[in-house]
User: Fold DNA replication complex GINS protein PSF1 from Mycena pura.
Amino acid sequence: MSFEDSYGELANRLILEAKSSSELGKLLPYSGPLVQRVIQEQCELERKIQAMKRDGVTTSEHGRWPTLIILARVVEQNKRCLLAYHSQRLDTIATAYWTAGGAVAHVISQLRDDMFRDEITYLREYHQSVVEYRQQLSPTDVIDFSMGIEDPPRESSFVTVESVRDLGGPIRTESGLLDFQLGHRYILLKRDVEHLILQGYLRKV
Assistant:
């Protein structure tokens, strides 16, 4: 089998990885080298197509027309595979974000080894967009975007918590600087502390 006969196989491998990630319900390590090889294949295909057009392969009457059509379709298939692979990864990251109640630091700590640097940037910008949108719709925090649509409305946007693990000093939240003391109880905005509850630093009381 010639190299040309294998065109499209690399992109199909990306789809298989995306399918495995969906079936496992987890983010798999980013396949940077494989993505790069697919992009390189795209460049090679484009050069071949342009060379054929310069050689006069422009109509269906030409003997090499079928080859041109096949190469063009492989280019389109590769594009769809690249988009599908990255779309599945971003969907998985977004799901992890909402599952963690919008706790960016927690998501990054859990997925950092499997995320590409641009995906970390995407997550942070995604969170900033959510924060800005929430502030536009609900400046007083009446709306909690992390609440499922099937859930009943929450009685309060505040929660009472107790500090059960040392945080090692003050932490900065959207509401300002918070300094927790072990064993002390606090009434705080849920959006400021839900990630700390999830990580085991605070306990609801």
